[in-house]
Amino acid sequence: MKQYSTNLLAMCVLGLWCIEAALAYQGSKTPRLYVTGKYVKDPSGKIVTLRGWFQPTGADFNGYLFTNPRNFTPEECAPVLHIFKCQVDFLTQTNPLFGKSHGWFNTFVRTWPPNDGWRNDGTVDEALQDRAWTNLYIPYVKHCQSRGVYVVFCGNAPDGGQFMGAQHKTNMIRYWTRIFNRYPEIRDAENVMIEICNEPVVIETQLGNGVWQSDTDAADRAVQAYFQDIVNAIRATGYRNIIWVPGLIWQTRLQNFAKYPISGTNIGYAGHWYPIGENNVQNIINRFYDDWKKCADKYPIIVTEGSWDTMEVSGLGQGSTEVFGNTIRNLYDTAGNISWLCMFVEDAIGNMRLGTNYWTYPTIGCGKAAFHWWATYTAQAPSGSPLYGPGITFFQDVDYGGLAVTLPAGDYTMSDLKDAGVPNDWVSSVKIPSGYTVIAYEHDNFTGTSWTLTANTPNLNSLNANDKISSCKIIETGGPVSGNTYKIVARHSGKAMDAYGAQTANGTQIIQWTYHGGNNQRWILTDRGGGQWSIISVQSGRCIDINAWGTANGTKVQLWDYYGNANQKYILTPTDNGFYRISPVHCQGSCLDVEGVSTADGAKVHLWQWLGGANQQWRFESP
Fold first, then answer.
1. Under a CB-based contact definition with an 8 Å cutoff, are residues 491 and 579 in contact?
2. CA dist., res. 425 & res. 18, Å (int)
3. Residue 166 to residues 24, 197, 235, 251, Cα–Cα distance (Å)
4. pTM for the full predicted model
5. What angle do CA 464, 467, 468 make, to 5 degrees?
6. How far apart are CA 304 and CA 326, in angstroms?
7. pLDDT tens profile 349-382
8. Mind listing the pLDDT tens digit for each residue in 168-190?
9. Three-class secondary structure of residue 573 per DSSP
10. Which domains does the chain have, with CATH numbers?
11. Among 68, 171, 440, 587, which is 20 to 30 Å from 10 by CA?
């Protein structure tokens, strides 16, 4: 029984799955992404992190559902591309799957093109490479874009690339410059990013000196110079998107980039993290702090390999969701700038070898966890991507201490909770955002004593429920609660309603701005009766007011002293997925609207006739 808080972490068979229509992850977006400081951002300035899967291209990683192409003719590539497309469709299908309340919410895939014409001496069979990219990889990129998925291509070094010497450097420069000069469809695609190469291990401290090192200052400086030349050559082709630079020691070492970064725009760093049998929370935390955190404090990171399962026998991926999965998830979430995957495609798709008609819920630990977890991260997708819901968070210890697991709405048996990283009799506290109810049960399958929770509960001892939850129902009830404080988020941009410049005077313009937690972005909703609500600023105590009782399109929306007038009260009409139209009582055919459908910080909120646009829909979220 956990009676005290710790500070361990401060911080069903399915039908056909080849959907050829361009139905992206519920309309998710793939604009060109940029690196700004330690964050990846979209063109509107929204901080973006991605979640995804690793797509090896060999038949052995894909259930032997095709034969590996040798000449990459259209006939050879067609069955490969068909399977790849079906996998993308399956892993971006957000409608409820497997009897759960939701589907998959992947936003990136990491892959590499093996055997695409490169020879061990660094030369290339150009005709074969042209066929490979024309018949397979370019169509794959286009399909991924239609499904709301970014593609991270990893460089295919013909020499293996674990020893970073002069020949490997030459090979990687030749490889990427030829790809981008030859295939503008790849170079210019907004949803394509690259990882320079896969799992380098050691480097010559000076090219040709025969001194191979990996964790010394000399090696760190050599890595900087080595990758700087490769990055410069890639940029000379006109490629503008993010370049992810790998670390040494099979991409487990990233701390060196904090001291010796790669210069230029849109640079981030790529790491790999497998459990290797580690089952101690503090050891995992220490490893992150000793190495990766140094890099994450300054630059964005993407994790392009990693998986786990308690039944993994090789040792590399041996680990549990309860310890390894939850710990790295908490670390990545706290960092706030780490995009990551935690599964190979065969980890994500159960029974893949049986064929597309028989794909099921994942059978591997990391795939099960990702299915439940990814649905809680839709707010971190690019602006304009629809949201699923923030979910509720269970904590291992009282007072929101220990490991945390955030889950979306749904019914969770004991087995479901275990898959998602919540062991039996483990929960000691819970955070519940507005619009959610949790019904927790003492026994499996929703039996035994039950407890209904509608608000944050820092200590389940108060309900005699500490370490007693074995199954639960998480219900998204929707609807704001009178007296609660909210951030009010625009559907099209993901940005929050804000009093301009944190000003408090009457007449202050209401705008949208990236949420930072300021009191000028926090609002108290009060039910004034008759389905009418006031919206009062936490900072100023003034309300959201329609200027001078105006009714025309473009009328200013502002702060003003609250008098209970009809231009200061609102009808909240639900649309879908937890969003609302906010219409003033005096002008109910109009609503609060973000000017020009803008996604920029500072865009004005004004009055406009209701047209059903995403810039006219708002969600009330826990701040």
1. yes
2. 40
3. 42, 14, 20, 19
4. 0.77
5. 65
6. 18
7. 999 999 999 999 999 999 999 999 999 998 888 8
8. 999 899 999 999 999 999 999 99
9. strand
10. 41-380 (3.20.20.80), 392-476 (2.60.20.10), 485-621 (2.80.10.50)
11. 440
